[in-house]
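Re: that chain you flagged

S.,

Sorry for the slow reply, it's been a week of failed gels. I finally had a moment to sit down with the sequence you sent. For the record, here it is as I used it:
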Amino acid sequence: MSEEEKVEAPQEEAAEKDVQSEGEDLQKTITSSLDELSDAPTKEQIEVWKAQFGEVFVSGFSEKELVVWRPVKRVEYLAIQEAVQEGKIDQPKSEETLLDVCVLFSSLKMAWGQTKGGVVPTLVEQVMQASNFIAPAAASMFVVKL
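Prediction finished late last night. Pasting the structure tokens below so you have them in one place:
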């Protein structure tokens, strides 16, 4: 290992620890913000959802704009896509339908169409990623020849 590589390795490790620490801090901030909302789901309710759906996530757009959601199941996704193909709903409505299916709690007390412009596409992207819809290049990174 060259001297330059020896210097870079500790710096990379420190940067990874900083990113991990920032992620943990953000997680604490979002979960504590959820705890502070008067109408937020209880820890017990979240445990019920976890038992029912598996994974449960919370997305924070601000301290008062929080959304608890779950990944979409294949059968639900296919039903939404079928509705689009049959012309029953358009693409923007399909995104809102996906959120209607997956969102378990929202502090946003309004219809999806009345939220800030980036809320729906951002949440849809998060739901899709958590549901294992990832870019082909990223997916290929998880393939290992045995």
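What I noticed first: The radius of gyration is 19 Å.

Talk soon,
D.
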